[in-house]
Each structure stands twice: as structure tokens, then as C-alpha cells.
Amino acid sequence: MKIEKKIWPEYFEKILSGEKTFEVRLADFKCKIGDLLILKEWNPKTKKYTGRKIEKKINYLLKTKNLQFWPNEDARRYGFYVIGWKERTAKQLQDEVKLFCKKNKIESPIECRLLDLTSEVGEVAKEILKMNNYGRNKLQKNDEIEMELGDVFYSLITIANYFDVDLEKALIKAIEKYAKRKMFKK
Q: For the chain, percent helix, then strand, then coil, each to nearest 5?
């Protein structure tokens, strides 16, 4: 089901930027998980729609009617906070790396980016060897592995950005491919 609601410009911008990842609404309409919430920017000064809209699929819904979390006096006295948090998507990470490279003028040919990725994978291998003393001991995780994996991820993102590949979509396709392979190996 599609649900259309007005939203003021300052909140519209915060959702558009990814800073605001929630919406608080009076529960005077029906909605459920999976519905499409269409937020249409409304200018309260002109009392007109601006023509901009954002569509968000509802993935979580908390209905507060009949919930007894706090005494009514406390709720009236203090009000409520709506607390949101931000999860970065693969696309947002790719955009961050793209912006970082542009801002810091980090431009290099694709061959160099591939060499960087290969080198960073080698650093991961080296850390794993150090973590088990080159196969002599049980594997003990160290703090360096996180940094080295971060370097691999960064290098991979620069290659994906070069070819304009959406890593999230690519990963979903890869998982589907592996799932099909596993089905045929039974």
C-alpha cells in the first residue's frame, strides 16, 4: 500500500541527506511493514507542495496506543524522545570513498588501484600468518587485522567506483550465484 504524507522542508532535507532515518506520525491512518511511505515536501509558508518527494519502504513500525511504558503524568511532564541511528549502506560507503578521493586528489589509473588491492590482500595474509606464528600456534586474533581488512575494503571500493559498480547489488548477485551452486552440489 502507498501512503502519502506532507513533510516540512527542514525534515525533508534531513531525510534526503540520510541524517534522519525515522519518521514520527500521529497514528491516525493505517500502515504496515512493507508499505511505501511517500513523503511530499510541503512549504508551510506558501501552503503548497514543492514538487519534491521521497519514497521509503517501511521496515519497522512501533504502535504506541495501549502501551503502558510510563505513567501518564510522566509522559505529559517529560514528553518522549524518538531516537534514531544511522546504518551506512554500501552505496553510502562508496560515496564517502569517492568524496574522500576527490577532496584529497587521490586519482590513480585502474591498474594501480588493482595493484593496491592485491597488495592489501597480501597484508591480510601476512597478519593471519603473524596471528598463528606462521602455523606454529593456534590462531589468535590481533588488532591489526581490522585495519588491514579496512584497507582491502577501501581498495575494493575504489575499483568498484572506477567502474561505477554498485557493490551492494554485486554482492546480492554473488550470494544468489553461490546459493545456486550449493543447490546443485547436493
A: 50, 15, 40
Contacts of 85 (CB under 8 A, 6+ apart): 21
**Residue 169, domain extent:** 90-184
Cell of 111: 591498474
If asked whether residues 61 and 120 sit together in one domain, one would say no
Amino acid at 152: V
* pLDDT tens, residue by residue, 100-111: 999 999 999 999
Query: Which CATH number do you get for residue 9?
Result: 2.30.130.30
Whether 44 and 111 map to the same domain: the answer is: no
C-alpha 34/C-alpha 54 separation (Å) is 16
Given a contact cutoff of 8 angstroms between Cβ atoms, the answer to whether 144 and 127 are in contact is yes
Cα dihedral across residues 166, 91, 95, 40: positive or negative = positive
Digit-coded pLDDT (tens) for 139-160: 988 999 999 999 999 999 999 9
Looking at the fold, whether 67 and 20 belong to one and the same domain comes out as yes
How far is the C-alpha of 13 from the C-alpha of 22, rounded, in Å? Answer: 13
